[in-house]
Amino acid sequence: MFLFTRAVLIVNVLFVICKVARSMQSQLCEPVRVDNHDYTDNNFVGSEMSEPPNKVAFQISAFGQDFVLDLHADSSFIAPTHSTFGMPLVSERADLRRCFYAGTVNSDPLSYVALSLCDGLHGAFGYDGWEYFVNPATDDSVFSSARRSAESAHLLRRRANAELGGNGTTRCGVDGGPTPEVARSLEKFKRSEEAKAGDKTTAQRSRLKRFASVPRYVETLVVADESMANFHGDDLRHYVLTLMAVAARLYKHPSILNPINIVVVKFLVITDEDKGPKVTGNAAMTLRNFCTWQKKMNKNSDKHPEYWDTAILFTREDLCGASTCDTLGMADVGTMCDPKRSCSVIEDDGLPSAFTTAHELGHVFNMPHDNVKACEDVFGKLQDNHMMSPTLIRINRTSPWSPCSAAIITEFLDSGHGDCLLDQPEKPSALPDILPGVSYGLERQCELSFGTGSKPCPLMQAPCQRLWCTGKTRGQPVCQTRHFPWADGTACGDGMLCMRGVCLEDYEVTRPKVDGKWGKWGTFGPCSRTCGGGVQLAKRECNNPLPDNGGKYCQGVRVKYRSCNLTPCSDTGKSYREEQCEAFNGFNLNTNRLTPSVVWVPKYSGISPKDQCKLICRANGTGYFYVLSPKVVDGTPCSPDSSGVCVQGKCSKAGCDINSAPARSLTSVASVEGTIRAARRFLAYSQNPFMATTLSSCFQWVRPTLTSANVAIREW
Fold it and tell me: Which residues of this UniProt protein bind Ca(2+) 1 (predicted)?
């Protein structure tokens, strides 16, 4: 179980003004729509518009620059059949899915934009080392009507992406390392790294051991409790979906090395606490209550359109961990697809809660923190600007996910733990996807984080880097920050928007989507065995080009493999699996049930097919058995009575190319002597009732007939 915690820095107003007044920039501006359009109303939620445009462009002039935001509708994070239950919301007067847009600024491929165009521009964008946040100006004198237009006065703020001091925000209060299984899996990455020490590319280091790139759809239940409804009122659904849009966009970044799609299939608002889960300040108990409650609410079949793979609860309750009440989120690790435990609890702390959501979902996907020793042993000391960093000051916009996070989620999915994510929901509608800072300006961001009445600290904001807001402590005016940046899309200058803590030209945030394509196959790597039939792998990268700006990740086979070193090993009388178990002799798992001289032997009976390629060994002379390694060495037979061999933890058919159907001879063995020789050759390879000979670098499997006498094959 992991906690996400908060650290609040409070300083005297005068002190803060002296420290950072010079780096804050903000300007009033009027976004102008510059695409060819016939619409006179830019509110996008009005019923008078039969269909919002799929593409739209705005120009914002501020800070001596022109920012052209090229936007496209993007609502892929909301399932078309998603439903909302609970209190009636005024915002349901229109389909909020048409609000959300994403794109680029000034056609810069490194920029980004995430905006809502409903009731003005709300959200953020990043461009040229700056983060920008834009929102409608709130001065009542500016507007003559209650509804804001996208082409009316807006406030644009920016800040530079300078290195920030301080300790940042502690994200998870539990300083836990990865599970032993994760650590052992990373050991395989470490050995592969050492074997190819001359390879210096990060992408190649982090994309080992992959089979097929298959789209995953995380069908999500989103729940908001009564405290959320009371605080956000009519804007609740739009606000929560904005958080989910930001989280979904993070999971579409190519640095995660997998096609992950976060899709909301159901949205619930709990207005009667007696009908919802019990929410208290005890984060662990709230998580348990919510997990139990959502399990009862879920459908029994994954085929049902409202079945969810994971559930997320948003609350304004002040969550507390074991020793502090700075907790912002909690989730169990590695529980995706577990109907009872695949859930998270998020304390709403303003727009940065989107990062909390992505972080906690990372734990559900089995990701530990980046600073654990297992990650450092394989990938070196990682920077603290990735999503799974235990502290967060800013997000690396070019690589929000670390190589360790990408490796672990890949291992998790390739091991079959994410199979519930393979079913695709109904094709999403073309729903708007805009940056949160467009929908929620800087003042509203302060109120969301620090309460009603909180405002941006005057003349002291470093654009986009940290959100500083006013408040009072012991009756004294203070400026305070949670160390999170301004929301993406917040205006930060003339034609500038924030994006991941950087103030960028608006055109950098509106570039088009680019779908990824496979590069060329690499060469085959070393053979897993020196004799007896091993396996060697070759891989390819999704880098020709890399996906960009929310484009699709490559689909298809990522790793291919073939047999190698088929010469039989010297006959030791032991199977290869026996030798692997034997390597653990004397390892008693630090339990008094086993002696220091324990001898390990393979366990075959009672093993399910999905576990055949795990190294499950039994303490000889006892009934105790354990998984000593999550995977046997490639080339190990799946079981004594199987013709398949294990490749990267999966049982594969043992044909010429390993994954093809094996060639089985229908001819009886002519002589006892020939049978014995064939049996010896095969027993040296797999120790099972089949016999094997090598034929043109291909396994040929032969089952002896009942008339073939004197063939001694070991009973298992």
Answer: 219, 302, 309, 420, 423
Cα angle, residue 17 at apex, residues 13 and 21 outer, rounded to 5°: 150
Question: Per the annotation, does 302 bind a ligand?
Answer: yes
Contact criterion met (CB below 8 Å) for 123 and 113: yes
For residue 420, say whether it is annotated as part of any ligand binding site.
yes
**What are the phi and psi torsion angles at 297 (to 5°)?**
-80, -20
pLDDT reading at 141 higher than 70 = no
274 is in an annotated binding site: no
Helices (H), 569-631: 576-582
Please give the CATH topology (third level) of the domain spanning 439-510.
Answer: YefM-like fold (3.40.1620)
Convert 649-683 to b/e letters by CB count within 10 Å (16 or more is b).
Answer: bbbbbbbbebbeebeeeeeebeeeeebbebbebbb
C-alpha dihedral sign at 558, 564, 570, 571 = positive
CB atoms within 10 A of CB 282: 17
304 is in an annotated binding site: no
Q: Which amino acid is at 615?
A: L
**What pLDDT is stored for residue 656 in this prediction?**
52
Higher pLDDT, 516 or 172: 516
Lowest mean pLDDT among 515-524, 619-628, 685-694: 685-694
Q: Does the annotation count 505 as an active-site position?
A: no
Per CATH, the homologous superfamily of domain 214-433 is: Collagenase (Catalytic Domain) (3.40.390.10)
> DSSP label at 18?
H
Domain parsing of the chain, residue ranges: 25-34+53-76+98-137+149-163, 214-433, 439-510, 517-564, 576-653
Tell me if 326 is assigned to a ligand binding site.
no
139 annotated ligand binder: no
400 φ/ψ angles, rounded to the nearest 5 degrees: -65, -25
User: What is the model's pLDDT at position 274?
Assistant: 76
The DSSP bridge partners found for residue 220 are 264, 310
Distances in whole angstroms, Cα of residue 343 to Cα of each of 127, 174, 289, 414: 35, 17, 11, 21
208 pLDDT above the threshold of 70: no
Q: How far is CA 25 from CA 154, 468, 491, in A?
A: 14, 13, 10
- Give me the catalytic one of 131, 226, 360, 541: 360
Residue 66 labelled as part of a binding site: no
Average pLDDT over residues 421-432: 63
Mean residue pLDDT of the chain comes to 76
Q: Is the pLDDT of residue 119 over 90?
A: no
150 neighbors 122 (Cβ within 8 angstroms):
no
Which residue, 61, 62, 53, 68, is CA-closest to 117?
53
Domain 517-564 of CATH type 3.20.20.190: no
CB 134 within 8 A of CB 123: yes
Residue 561 has pLDDT above 80, yes or no: yes
CA distance readout (Å), 118 to 52, 91, 123, 278, 567: 11, 10, 11, 34, 69
Name the pairing type of β-strands 216-224 and 260-269: parallel
Range with the poorest average pLDDT among 57-61, 443-447, 682-686: 682-686
